[in-house]
Design a protein that fits this description.
Keywords: Calcium, Lipoprotein, Palmitate. Belongs to the phospholipid scramblase family. Pfam families: Scramblase (PF03803). This is Phospholipid scramblase. The longest helix is centred in the last third of the chain and has 19 residues. By secondary structure, this protein is α+β, with helices and mostly antiparallel strands. The chain has a domain of 206 residues: Beta Barrel (Porin). The radius of gyration is 25 Å and the shape is globular. It has five helices and twelve strands. A twelve-stranded antiparallel barrel has the order 1-2-3-4-5-6-7-8-9-10-11-12. Helix content is 17%, strand content 25%.
């Protein structure tokens, strides 16, 4: 009896396992992203195993947020943000970033034959996560006979294959001798809803543009160098206020190396803007990047 009583006391006084005080405090992925404040309710991600339009059919794998999709060159997608009131669907990504990287894909057929193909671009954030994918829609004759001056429609999709932005460039002139028919690009987000325009301004020497809202009112100005030539250095197009007294952003054509610059027309761009800039204006700046690429850097090599 006494031995049993002592045994019970030892069991009650023995060392008990300490609870894991850190359990349940796991940090939310990407919480260290600049300008992002972790929330109590994390963003809703697309379900595992989703299949964006135009990609290979699903196999025995599952796609988790932030991981690379199969056959996508190891590129990870930026996690899907929560919906924002009065924000065009799909533009929520732009609310969390102040820098965009635009990388044009190298087309093997174009390199080997000189045959102009539809341009395709990866649009990433500063962490290298893919935000959007852009693809030109054009016919063979227009691409190869009109060259860089060709009109085009550019469709931009997000990681679910949803069309979030559509760009429309009509057939216009860019020479200084035709000031009444200069370049213009229309930006729709979502497709069918105009959110702004890029309008070329006449100038005898400098490439100048105006970023307009959906009503055609000027919001920002873009000014490039006198000779936009990418020779061993970046080419910067400053984004300024309407009175051109302050620089609020930059569109930079990045030097990619002699081999790539000589033998391909594949270009890399960087876009910088304030974090709190209007989301629609950010989308129009993205459209301005494509117009600048076609006007000054889309050359046949």
């Amino acid at each position: 009896m006494q031995e049993n009583l002592l045994g019970d006391m030892e069991m009650k006084g023995g060392n008990q396992p300490n609870p894991n005080l850190g359990y349940g405090n796991t940090e939310f992925p990407n919480a260290d992203y600049p300008g992002y404040t972790p929330q109590q309710n994390p963003y809703g991600y697309p379900s595992a195993g989703y299949q964006p339009a135009g990609y290979p059919p699903p196999g025995p794998y599952q796609v988790q947020p932030g991981q690379a999709m199969p056959n996508q060159s190891g590129a990870a997608w930026m996690p899907l943000p929560a919906a924002i009131p009065n924000c065009p669907p799909g533009l929520e990504y732009l609310s969390q970033i102040d820098q965009i990287l635009v990388h044009q894909q190298v087309e093997l057929l174009e390199v080997l034959t000189g045959f102009e193909t539809n341009n395709k671009y990866e649009i990433k954030n500063s962490m290298g996560q893919r935000v959007y994918f852009a693809a030109e829609e054009n016919d063979c004759c227009t691409r190869n006979y009109c060259g860089p001056s060709r009109p085009f429609i550019m469709t931009i999709v997000d990681n679910t294959g949803r069309e979030v932005i559509k760009l429309h460039r009509p057939c216009r002139c860019s020479a200084c001798c035709f000031p009444c028919c200069l370049q213009k690009l229309e930006v729709q987000a979502p497709p069918g809803t105009v959110v702004g325009y890029i309008v070329q301004n006449w100038h005898p020497c400098l490439p100048k543009f105006t970023i307009q809202d959906e009503r055609g009112q000027g919001v920002l100005k873009i000014r490039g160098p006198c000779i936009p030539c990418s020779c061993c250095a970046d080419v910067n197009f400053e984004v300024k206020s309407m009175d051109e007294s302050a620089v609020v952003g930059m569109i930079s054509k990045q030097w990619t190396g002699s081999v790539k610059e000589i033998f391909t027309d594949s270009d890399n761009f960087g876009i910088q803007f304030p974090m709190d800039l209007d989301i629609k204006t950010k989308a129009v700046m993205l459209g301005a990047c494509f117009l600048i690429d076609f006007m000054f850097f889309e050359t046949k090599n």
